[in-house]
Amino acid sequence: MAADEGLREGLEHDDDFGHRSLMSPMPSPPSAVPAAPWPLASVVGMVVLAWIALSWPWLSGVVTIPWDAKAHFQPQLQFLAEAWHSGRSPFWTPYVFAGSPQIADPQSLIFSPPFALIAALEPVPGFRLGDGAVLGTLLAGALAFVVIFRDRDWHPAGAVVAALAFAFGAAAAWRIQHIGQVLSLGYFAITLALIARALERGSVAYGFAAGIVAGFMVLGRDQVALLGVYVLAGLVIAAIAMARQPWQALRTALLPLLAGGVGAVLVATVPILLTAVLAEGSNRPAIDLVGAGKGSLHPAALLTGL
User: Fold this and answer.
1) Lowest-pLDDT range, 34-38, 149-153, 163-167, 252-256?
2) Residue 178: pLDDT band with limits 50, 70, 90
3) Counting beta carbons within 10 angstroms of the beta carbon of residue 31, is it exposed (0 to 12), middle (13 to 18) or buried (19 or more)?
4) What is the DSSP letter of 63?
5) DSSP character for 73?
6) Of 215, 203, 306, nearest to 254 (Cα)?
7) Which of 95, 135, 159, 260 lies 20 to 30 A from 165 at CA?
8) pTM for this structure?
9) C-alpha dihedral (184, 212, 193, 249), degrees to nearest 10
10) Contact (CB, 8 A) for 261 and 211
11) In sequence order, which residues have a C-beta less than 8 Å from that of residue 24 and are 6 or more positions away?
């Protein structure tokens, strides 16, 4: 009877979302035996050690991330570092055609925190630093999934598997040479963890932080960032719509979401407007559906799996 009353009281004082989802965990039923604390330090340690082991060929310089990572993004990083350390502006480069506004280029890395930090500290950044920035961003995203699991008291082993699957599986492995897309993927995971806390706790601070990171994700100006925006928006809408008290959930979420919007606008508005102005004079301002289809796997190719 006491346990039933405790559970009922816990449900009554649950957050306004009132259902077990990514954005709003339900409290665990009370137990006569105190639950063991979630082993955050151990899980983080396991993820970091596994990340070091799996990333070591690139971190050690034995191999390097190929193709676009070196043919396109490495020169961008080297130009940014050389410009800063020589006292010149990195916002314009004379090396592209008759000159090009780097500040408006989505792939210039000027507004990428890990690469901008490398350029500020190292005048001649090598391959290992560039690869480390990419892999480090994936580690940050992996640790964001650890936070998500911890906040919901989900199984620690699941946190390790989810973190490593995110950092080294699927799109993160296949698209690793496309630096901007990988950065957007890492920022997506961090934003997901922050916005979940913002909604669950009604926290303006977490909402603002989520907006800041989401702003950097949007600055990727790539399809991964676009899909990330769709997924995050869908999760927020679903969390509010499926809440036990939707209107109360909306009121609780309003200030954190507004703070997030402010953070995203502060980070992303000026660079995106500059890119829009640059695109007006481009002969390739967009990639249409037909053009994207030509570079994609035709659905008929799935028959080869039979």
Assistant:
1) 34-38
2) very high
3) exposed
4) S
5) I
6) 203
7) 260
8) 0.87
9) -130
10) yes
11) 15, 17, 18, 199, 200, 239, 243
Alpha-carbon separation of residue 142 from 11, 115, 118, 187, 208 (angstroms): 31, 19, 21, 10, 21
Distance between the two ends of the chain, CA-based, in angstroms? Answer: 56
- Name the DSSP class of 281: T
Token pair in block for residue 1:
């009877």
Identity (one letter) of the amino acid at 223? Q
- The single residue listed with the structure tokens 């989900």 is 154
CA distance 165 to 147: 15
Phi, psi at 100, each rounded to 5°: -150, 140
Question: Do the Cβ atoms of 238 and 286 come closer than 8 Å?
Answer: no
Tokens of 233: 């928006």
Give the ranges where 152-203 is alpha helix by DSSP (H): 156-168, 170-174, 179-201
All structural domains of the chain with their residue ranges: 37-280
Compute CA distances 190 → 165, 176, 207, whole Å. Answer: 15, 18, 12
- For residues 157 and 150, what is the distance between their CA atoms, to the nearest angstrom? 11
Q: DSSP H helical segments within the chain, as ranges?
A: 2-12, 40-59, 68, 74-85, 113-121, 127-151, 156-168, 170-174, 179-201, 204-218, 223-241, 246-280, 289-294
